[in-house]
Amino acid sequence: MNSPKWLDRILYPFAHHTLQLPAGQMHYVDEGEGSPIVFVHGTPTWSFVWRQQIKSLCRTHRCIAPDHLGFGLSDKPEHFNYTPEAHADNLEQLINSLQLKNITLVVHDFGGPIGFHYALRHPENVQQLVILNTWMWSLADEKRIAKVSGFMSNSIGKFLYQRMAFSTKVLLPQGYYQRKNLTKDIQRHYQKPHDSSVARFGSWRFAAALKESSPYFAQLWQQRNELQKINMLIIWGENDRLLPLHFLDKWQKAFPDTRIIKLKTGHFLQEEKGSEVTEAIREVLQS
C-alpha cells in the first residue's frame, strides 16, 4: 500500500504490510529480525504510538505492530462489530499467519484485553508479557467509568465521537501528563486516520465496550492464573487521568511477584517516556 500524504516518514519510517481479514484489510508494521515482539495498541491510537520502541528494538528483534480494524492505516469497515473479542480474533489471525513463535507481547489500553485473550489461549507461545496502563477485569463496579461508558454509548455519545472527534480532540490530550509533549504534528497523526464520521466508528465502539464488554473482561480475569506461566513486567504511568491508579494495585495483588516500574507520566507513557519504556522492555527481553 502507498503511504498517505499526511504521514511523516521521518516519524514513521516503516514499511507497510497488510493482512486480508474477512472484514477488511489489516495494516501492520514488521521491522527487524530475531525473536518477535508484538505491540498491541488501544484507542484512539494505532501502531504510530509504538514508533519509538520499534525504531530502537528492531535492531535486535522482530517488531510487529498491527493497526486494529477501524484504526490507523487499516480498513474501517462499516459492518465489523468492533468488540474487543473481534479485535482479539484478528490479532490471533495475524500471529498465526506470520507463524510467530515465542513472542513477547506488549499491550496498552484496550490492547490489554485484546492481547490477553491470545496470551490466555496460548501461554506456551508467549515468553514475556509487558503490561502498560490497561486492565483485564470487568469494569461494572467502576462507577465513573461505567457512567461515562453508558453515556457515550447513547446517541449523544455517538454524536460526540463520530461528529465531533471527541476521542482524538478531548481524550487524547487528557492522556498526556504534560500537554506540551502532544505537539500539533503528533496529534495530527492521531486525527488523520479518523478524519470522517465513518472512520471514527471504531473508537466510539471502544467507548461503549467499557461497559458492554464487562462479561468478556470478567471471563479473562477468571483465567488470570494462566498468566503465572509467563514472565511479566508492568510499566505504569502513575499520573494517568484516564485509568484510576488503583488499577495498578489490582495488578499488584493478583501478581505480587511481578516487577513493576512506575513512571511519572500519563496514560500514553510510550509517547511521553519513550526511552524509559523502551529500556524497560529491553531489560525484560535480556532477562
UniProtKB/TrEMBL annotation:
One of its GO terms (molecular function) is hydrolase activity. Keywords: Hydrolase. Pfam families: Abhydrolase_1. Gene3D superfamilies: alpha/beta hydrolase (3.40.50.1820). InterPro entries: AB_hydrolase_1 (IPR000073), AB_hydrolase_fold (IPR029058), AB_hydrolase_sf (IPR050266), Epox_hydrolase-like (IPR000639). Residues 36-273 form the AB hydrolase-1 domain. This is Alpha/beta fold hydrolase. The lineage of its organism: Bacteria, Pseudomonadati, Bacteroidota, Cytophagia, Cytophagales.
